[in-house]
Specification:
heterodimer, A: 484 residues, alpha+beta, Arc Repressor Mutant, subunit A, 3 domains, nine-stranded mixed sheet, three-stranded antiparallel sheet, 16 strands, B: 493 residues, alpha/beta, Amidase signature (AS) enzymes, eleven-stranded mixed sheet, 13% strand, globular
């Protein structure tokens, strides 16, 4: 059950729907051949189509269509075999044709769903209303000149998927989980890189509040929020703002608001006269987009294993806990890393090493798993040395640290540093004998019943062998000697 | 031998092949005629150097025996076609100084077929008009005059510059575009042949858009055979235009067999308008007799929704135009009139750049797409359009082509009807339904009015059946034996 917000007059529930704009992974734009790379010099990736020169016509990029259909399939959604591109008309300097080509009444993807795994282990199903393809606009730069606005059209015409959720979310926390899950699915599919810092994923949040179970309240839309944290902050603030307005006897105005990340508040967009009449109508330059059923089915069959299925498999196949499985499948690269380590080894040990030791190092170094200084194969090699008794688990952590530092394999480090575990019982016995001889009084105490001293002897032997004594063997031999 | 400027494309092709004259001589004759025709204000840009350079290439190919289908043909190009490095303004001030960095597909195909660019010709601003009087650069005069009346007449529109240039023998042929009659009505007014092909036959890429779902390029020539030759060179699927049809381009010239025996020719009863001049009715009747004489069978048919075509057209075309013309905002090319804010710059630029007729249609189009009006206007008009197309489809189950007048009158004087948009819009009453249905339509000069001005008959065909349209048109052309010419040079005797 989602958390409620306590107001002066009792508990309130937030009702939230999200519209996510996800930039399609594609080398070319939605209707032109211009490039889409991030960070290029202004106006270097602009075709005469993007700049809306007279007589230029849009031609649909099949790859973008494929990406949208894949995404729809990944969201368990209906794929519409016929969809229509419409023009959304408005004037702005960074919108060269004076309209955005979008899909209004007949989107390419219809209803679908996303399952959220909440931290308490419960899961929530969130409805997807639709997904449609549309063009991005260019960028207006207001800070380059005191009186002029500069326009960069590199982004103009880049393909976006607008993914609209049902108003099924009930808290900022759920909204955050929704975006993270959606981003995970998009990355698995390779249809959006999910990079919010570069603007590849942007979010409009529709928020209203009501008494639990009561009728829906008036909603406000918070435009263009560009990080998971900001989405959660914006929703949290907006819900509390609306509750305050109502509890003060006011009414919530339906309006578009902006999130001020610096102050952590939402505020109304400046001008109300900018309420647009977009005059949508079907773009006469484009025929309805028709898809072959066979083609869609072939795409369905080619989809990678997605997070939910992978998680279920990790639980069944590797006997992982749902929490651990959930963590590991969040990113495809993590899941792949784990599986490489776990293959032919103890999966729980593998999961532990990945999530505790490896993630610890990656967090400390601020690296993604793709840049991990220790490859999955190398970590597997380390686990092999533990299993075959070459090194103890304790020493393994030291070896791992050396692997991170030097990039060398576990075996090489063990060899170099002479960390190989002593499994020669004669050698261990010899050390035990000299330790016991040196600690005759403690031996007497032990034999008199002070059995806690066992650990002390273990420590002494380990110290004398620089930790290399095989712990199991050491225990066994020590017990025998003390008994004898 | 007649003057080089009197030749048709087919005749010039033979003359060039027989080395009776060179492409250079053909170009020079037309460059001189183009200069002599300046009083008509048909040409906005003359490109004589380019014409001679292209003619030189034609002569080189002719010498090698590698002549192309339109080899050496000096053409006037409607200013709606973007021509690389040659001023293209769509007859509007808002495109002042616009030099396209690209060539339209249709003109590129013509150059690839060996044709020669003489210059760019005047037109109603953004192709919105039926008189070629709504141009930023002044009206075009029809080379025809009423005998004993020196008032200049309109050439029709919007391809009025094209029609006037071809009628005045200042170009051997011209490109036009037709959204609601803009090729056929001026062809009728100027006594030439004009063909609007099936929607999707010619690529729209690089043609300044007026109403995207209706615009179609086509040839304007002095014979049906020329239209067939030129259409073939202009046609073909273009991957850069999603609405261009991936269909084969037949040899249209080969379809001109003169044989129409057994064809059923529909005569739509709704085209008999109240108050239509008797001479139009009489001309139509003569046309029916001609096809009967040729062994075809006239069939009375009904196109019940004809009267809704103009209102539907004047919703759909302005709606699309209002959106298509939004890009002329002063930001990236053409005219910019500064303002204190972005909105003010838009307002200043568009107020200064667009003429009255364009502004009227942008306003109408914006209105019919507005929230609350969309269903009543735009959506309804689209439904009417579907029904009109269905009407034609039903007619073509019973006949192979239709025969109608092209326009309800002959050319009128410049200034007439200018203050009455509805009267002006009525010019297109016979042509507009064809655009709504996306069908091919051909205007053939068929006779003279009582005032000795040309009148055309229209042949309408099935989608992508220009071959039959041209074949029927050819029979009418032969039967009509239209040989009258305007006074050349213009204004003389």
């Amino acid at each position: 059950m989602a958390e409620l917000i306590q107001g002066r007059t009792g508990a309130w529930e937030a009702v939230i729907g999200l519209e996510v704009h996800a930039q399609v992974v594609s080398r070319a734009k939605l209707f032109s051949g211009a490039a889409t790379a991030f960070g290029a010099e202004p106006n270097t990736q602009v075709s005469t189509v993007d700049a809306a020169f007279p007589g230029m016509l849009p031609v649909i990029n099949r790859h973008c269509v494929e990406q949208a259909v894949k995404t729809g399939l990944g969201l368990n959604a209906e794929i519409n075999l016929v969809s229509v591109f419409d023009r959304k008309n408005y004037f702005y300097a960074d919108l060269p044709p004076g309209y955005q080509i979008s899909q209004y009444t007949r989107p390419i993807v219809g209803k679908g769903k996303i399952v959220l795994d909440m931290p308490d282990g419960s899961s929530r199903e969130i409805g997807i209303t639709r997904l449609h393809l549309e063009q991005d606009a260019g960028k207006s730069l207001h800070d380059q000149h005191p009186t002029l606005t500069y326009v960069d059209l590199n982004r103009a015409g880049v393909a976006l998927m607008e993914i609209v959720s049902e108003p099924d979310l009930r808290s900022a926390e759920e909204a955050g989980a929704y975006i993270r899950k959606l981003r995970s699915i998009l990355r698995y599919l390779g249809t959006c890189d999910g990079n919010m810092e570069e603007g590849s994923l942007r979010c409009d949040c529709n928020v209203s509040v009501r008494k639990p179970g009561g009728p829906l309240g008036t909603r406000c839309e918070i435009k263009n929020v560009n990080s998971v944290r900001f989405v959660m902050q914006a929703i949290e603030h907006e819900a509390r703002r609306q509750i305050e307005v109502i509890e003060e006897g006011g009414t919530v105005e339906q309006e578009t608001r902006l999130f001020d990340a610096g102050r952590g508040v939402t505020r109304p967009m400046r001008s109300k006269e900018e309420a647009h009449d977009y005059r949508y109508f079907p773009d006469p330059d484009l025929l309805p987009l028709t898809l072959e059923w066979d083609w869609v089915e072939a795409l369905r069959r080619s989809l990678p294993e997605l997070p939910d299925a992978k998680k279920a498999r990790f639980i069944a196949e590797y006997k992982l806990s749902p929490q651990d499985a959930g963590v590991l499948v969040g990113e495809q690269a993590s899941a792949d890393y784990f599986e490489t380590v776990a293959r032919g080894r103890d999966p729980k040990l593998a999961a532990n090493w990945v999530m505790v030791e490896l993630y610890g190092v990656l967090n400390r170094l601020s690296l993604g798993i793709e840049q991990s200084p220790v490859s999955a194969e190398a970590l597997g090699g380390l686990l092999d040395l533990i299993r075959d008794g070459t090194i103890s688990g304790r020493l393994a952590k030291e070896v791992f640290a050396a692997m991170v530092e030097t990039g060398k394999g576990a075996a090489a480090i063990v060899e170099e540093r002479g960390l190989k575990q002593v499994t020669d019982s004669g050698a261990i016995e010899g050390v035990i004998e000299s330790v016991l001889a040196a600690q005759a009084d403690k031996v007497a105490e032990y034999r008199a019943g002070k059995e806690k001293l066992f650990g002390f002897f273990v420590g002494q032997v380990m110290k004398a062998t620089q930790g290399k004594a095989n712990p199991a063997l050491l225990n066994e031999l020590l017990r025998k000697k003390l008994a004898g | 031998m007649s003057a080089l400027t009197d030749l048709t494309i087919a005749e010039a092709r033979d003359g060039l092949a027989a080395r009776q004259f060179s492409a250079r001589e053909l170009a020079e004759a037309h460059i001189a005629a183009m200069a002599a025709a300046r009083p008509l204000n048909a040409f906005l840009v003359e490109t004589p150097e380019r014409a001679l350079a292209m003619a030189a290439q034609s002569d080189a190919r002719l010498a090698r025996g590698a002549a192309l289908p339109m080899e050496g043909m000096p053409l006037a190009i409607k200013d709606l076609f973007c021509t690389e490095g040659v001023l293209t303004t769509a007859g509007s001030r808002i495109l002042d100084g616009f030099m396209p960095p690209y060539e339209s597909t249709v003109t590129a195909k013509l150059w690839q077929a060996g044709a020669v660019l003489l210059g760019k010709v005047n037109m109603d601003e953004f192709a919105m008009g039926s008189s070629t009087a709504t141009c930023a650069h002044g009206p075009v005069e029809n080379p025809w005059r009423r005998p004993g009346d020196n008032r200049p007449l309109v050439p029709g529109g919007s391809s009025g510059g094209s029609a006037a240039a071809v009628a005045a023998r200042a170009a051997i042929a011209a490109t036009g575009t037709d959204t609601g009659g803009s090729i056929r009505q001026p062809a009728s007014f100027c006594g030439i042949v004009g063909l609007k092909p099936t929607y999707g036959r010619c690529s729209r890429w690089g043609i300044v858009a007026f109403a995207s779902s209706l615009d179609q390029a086509g040839p304007m020539t002095r014979s049906v055979r020329d239209a067939a030759i030129m259409l073939k060179a202009m046609s073909g699927h273009d991957p850069k235009d999603s609405t261009s049809a991936p269909v084969a381009v037949p040899d249209f010239e080969a379809a001109l067999t003169g044989e129409i025996k057994g064809l059923r020719i529909g005569i739509p009863r709704e085209y008999r308008l109240d108050g239509m001049p008797g001479e139009i009715e009489a001309l139509w009747q003569r046309g029916i007799e001609w096809i009967k004489d040729a062994g075809a069978e006239p069939v009375e048919i009904s196109l019940k929704l004809t009267k809704y075509a103009l209102p539907a057209y004047y919703i759909i075309a302005p709606a699309e135009a209002s959106s298509n013309l939004a890009r002329y905002d002063g930001v990236r090319f053409g005219l910019r009139v500064p303002g204190r804010s972005l909105d003010e710059m838009y307002e200043n630029t568009r107020a200064a750049g667009f003429g009255a007729e364009v502004r009227r249609r942008v306003l109408i189009g914006t209105y019919v797409l507005s929230a609350g009006y969309y269903d009543a206007y735009y959506l309804k008009a689209q439904q009417v359009r579907t029904l009109i197309a269905r009407d034609f489809a039903a007619a073509f189950e019973r006949c192979d082509a239709l025969l109608t007048p092209t326009a309800p009158s002959a050319a009128f004087a410049i200034g007439e009807k200018q203050d009455d948009p509805i009267a002006m819009y009525l010019n297109d009453v016979f042509t507009v339904p064809v655009n709504l249905a996306g069908l091919p339509g051909l205007s053939v000069p068929a006779g003279l009015s009582a005032e000795e001005l040309p009148l055309g008959l229209q042949v309408i065909g099935r989608a992508f059946d220009e071959a039959t349209v041209l074949r029927v048109g050819g029979v009418i052309e032969s039967a009509a034996g239209f040989t009258a010419k305007p006074a050349i040079p213009p204004g003389g005797d």
